[in-house]
Amino acid sequence: MMFLSISRITKFSLQNFARNIWLSIVTITIIVLTLFSVTSLVFINAVLNQAIKLVESKVDVSVYFKPTATEEQIAGVQSYLLELPYITQVAHVTKSEALAKLREQYKGSPLILESLKELSNNPLGDTLIVNTIATSDYEKVVDIMNATPQFAVLIDNQSFDDNSYVIEKLEQIAGQLTRIGWGVTLFFGLISLIVIINTIRIAIYTHRDEIGIMKLVGASNSFIRGPFVGEAILYALIGSGITFVLAYVVATFSDPYVVGLLGPVNFTLLSYLNQNVHYIFGGELLGIIFISVFATSLALRRYMRV
């Protein structure tokens, strides 16, 4: 009996959808615009978050030691820094490695290379490159190095590669785009709600005689409402399916530009979409089904006098 009722509701839902095909197309288009605005917002946030991580990975503190500092003393400073909870990595660049990098950097300048060859001893000292969890922690590293006497006597110089301004700007842009994106989404969501309500109103008006006959033969309110709710869910399913396909098309064609923007990083929109497909489209589907059913309920409550 339940299967028969479901099959009849499905049949009537498809009939309603087909009878008002142009209105159905308009409704689905608005739903696609709503869902795609959400998907675009997710994409933009993912790219900006990756850009912020990329800039943060370039920030570090370089601690340059005097040439007289011994390996044991440098190892002691490195061990001390690694014990601090906000430090993630301390890389040791030896004086010979530093000299090799300097030669590589100025390989196009014969004068500088000849000057380096004339040196009897390596004038460079060892270097510790320090990375922290947050960019705000780098100042702590500089303060510790300056405030600890046994460290200060070993250090020749410190450089703080501060990209905090760039990170702050990226975070501001991400916040602004998120607010704009949600504004666009809410706008299309409201339009979807209005369009679905009016679509169901027209369907109810078209079938008003059939509804009266069904009531006369004893049909329940739930059975009468079922095709209209099913029609709204059908709009949501088709709209979600189209958005799903569009998202993959956009991700595929956008990836070369994303790679060009971020550089050689282990991130693409397509891989991000594959990893989060259930969360993105599952949430969107549930949301648009809720809007569709809610809009249908409003239309039925006001216009369906049964």
Describe the structure.
With 306 residues, this protein is of the alpha+beta class. It folds into 2 domains: 2-55 and 166-303, no CATH class; 60-162, Alpha-Beta Plaits (2-Layer Sandwich). 75% of the residues lie in helices and 8% in strands. It has helices spanning 2-19, 21-58, 71-82, 95-105, 110-118, 138-147, 149-152, 164-206, 208-216, 221-262, 269-303, and strands at 60-65, 87-93, 127-132, 155-161. α2 (21-58) runs antiparallel to α8 (164-206), α2 (21-58) packs antiparallel against α11 (269-303) and α8 runs parallel beside α11. The radius of gyration is 32 Å and the shape is elongated.
Features:
single chain; 306 residues; alpha+beta; Alpha-Beta Plaits; 2 domains; 11 helices; elongated
Secondary-structure map with pairings?
Layout: H1 2-19, H2 21-58, E1 60-65, H3 71-82, E2 87-93, H4 95-105, H5 110-118, E3 127-132, H6 138-147, H7 149-152, E4 155-161, H8 164-206, H9 208-216, H10 221-262, H11 269-303
Antiparallel strand pairs: 1-3, 1-4, 2-3
Compact overview of the structure:
This protein has 306 residues and is an alpha+beta fold. The chain is built from 11 helices and 4 strands, in the order H-H-E-H-E-H-H-E-H-H-E-H-H-H-H. Helix 2 runs antiparallel to helix 11 (269-303) and helix 8 (164-206) packs parallel to helix 11 (269-303).
